[in-house]
């Protein structure tokens, strides 16, 4: 899959990343290489391979399931630039 300069510009704009114009073409080539590598992974025969969540057998650390008073939402939201009805308001990033 080839990523062109227009796609890089669009993704950078959506992600609000200021990418200099001289980096667009090299970045498109790098991303195309990554997509080619991902496509190669699809060719690997995984028939009969059990899905796993980690490459090493480590149990996830568990904590006590205890009911608490919860966080202080008003205090947390006091640092937000903008809130509505107790929720953070963030700029739209997906068209």
TrEMBL record:
Q: What does this protein do?
A: Allows the formation of correctly charged Asn-tRNA(Asn) or Gln-tRNA(Gln) through the transamidation of misacylated Asp-tRNA(Asn) or Glu-tRNA(Gln) in organisms which lack either or both of asparaginyl-tRNA or glutaminyl-tRNA synthetases. The reaction takes place in the presence of glutamine and ATP through an activated phospho-Asp-tRNA(Asn) or phospho-Glu-tRNA(Gln).
Its quaternary organisation is:
Heterotrimer of A, B and C subunits.
Q: What class of enzyme is it?
A: ligase
Catalysed conversion reaction: L-aspartyl-tRNA(Asn) + L-glutamine + ATP + H2O = L-asparaginyl-tRNA(Asn) + L-glutamate + ADP + phosphate + 2 H(+); L-glutamyl-tRNA(Gln) + L-glutamine + ATP + H2O = L-glutaminyl-tRNA(Gln) + L-glutamate + ADP + phosphate + H(+)
**Record SUPFAM superfamilies:** Glu-tRNAGln amidotransferase C subunit
Does the keyword field hold Ligase? yes
Q: What is this protein called?
A: Aspartyl/glutamyl-tRNA(Asn/Gln) amidotransferase subunit C
Keyword annotations of the record: ATP-binding, Ligase, Nucleotide-binding, Protein biosynthesis
Entry GO MF terms:
ATP binding; glutaminyl-tRNA synthase (glutamine-hydrolyzing) activity
Q: Which family does it belong to?
A: Belongs to the GatC family.
Q: Which organism is it from?
A: Phenylobacterium glaciei
- GO BP term (any one): regulation of translational fidelity
The enzyme's E.C. designation: 6.3.5.-
